[in-house]
Task: inverse folding
């Protein structure tokens, strides 16, 4: 008997073709699903990082906006105090201390001190959180000098009371006492001016849009 191989029947050939087609279909399906999954995974990762970047940028912008508002208010309060402190120093130094000339000035000076002192710890807290340790220390030094200047001016309270409430339109602050108080107060005002200028210029540079954007470039 010969060992010849019998030819495949049409049904066997059909089954083989069907199996091959099914295998290819499955392979193609798996490949497509893998691609879809991979794309979805990549999109998810990018979205995650994008969200974090977006949140970081939003936080920085919000902080910068609040920082600008606090900077402007601090600059106004310090400038207002320095202006009125210089005026009161000038008036007492030149003996312009009648009730008519001095009383409005003292009231405005007291208002500027109160405004600055009222917000002192708000500024210090904000500075400690957003402006850094060095700037916070500078601000503390400024506030300490403000208080020391104010203490010296308050040594003239009795003189102010005499000028404002005695029935004598020509009454003035005692020139000797006034000069002594101003000589003691002046160095503190000079420190306030110098440190305020340094702090505000430094802060103005840190709040520029280019400086904020540099954190993300």
Result:
């Amino acid at each position: 008997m010969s060992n010849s191989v019998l030819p495949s029947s049409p049904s066997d050939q059909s089954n083989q073709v069907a199996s091959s087609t099914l295998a290819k279909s499955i392979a193609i399906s798996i490949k497509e699903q893998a691609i879809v999954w991979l794309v979805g995974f990549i999109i998810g990762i990018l979205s995650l990082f994008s969200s974090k970047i977006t949140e970081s940028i939003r936080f920085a912008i919000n902080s910068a906006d609040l920082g600008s508002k606090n900077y402007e208010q601090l600059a106004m309060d310090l400038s207002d105090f320095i202006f009125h402190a210089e005026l009161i120093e000038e008036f007492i130094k030149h003996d312009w201390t009648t009730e008519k000339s001095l009383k409005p000035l003292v009231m405005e000076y007291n208002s500027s001190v109160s405004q600055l002192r009222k917000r002192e710890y708000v500024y210090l807290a904000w500075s400690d959180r957003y402006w850094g340790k060095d700037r916070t220390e500078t601000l503390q030094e400024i506030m300490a000098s403000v208080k020391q200047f104010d203490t010296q001016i308050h040594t003239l309270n009795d003189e102010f009371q005499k000028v404002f409430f005695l029935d004598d339109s020509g009454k003035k602050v005692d020139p000797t006492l006034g000069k002594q108080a101003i000589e003691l107060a002046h160095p503190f005002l000079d420190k306030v001016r110098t440190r305020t200028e340094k702090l505000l210029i430094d802060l103005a540079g840190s709040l520029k849009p280019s400086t904020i954007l540099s954190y993300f470039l």
Residues 210-217 have pLDDT under 50 and may be disordered. Helices lie at 10-93, 99-118, 120-131, 133-154, 157-165, 175-206, 209-213. The longest helix spans residues 10-93. The chain has one domain: 65-216.
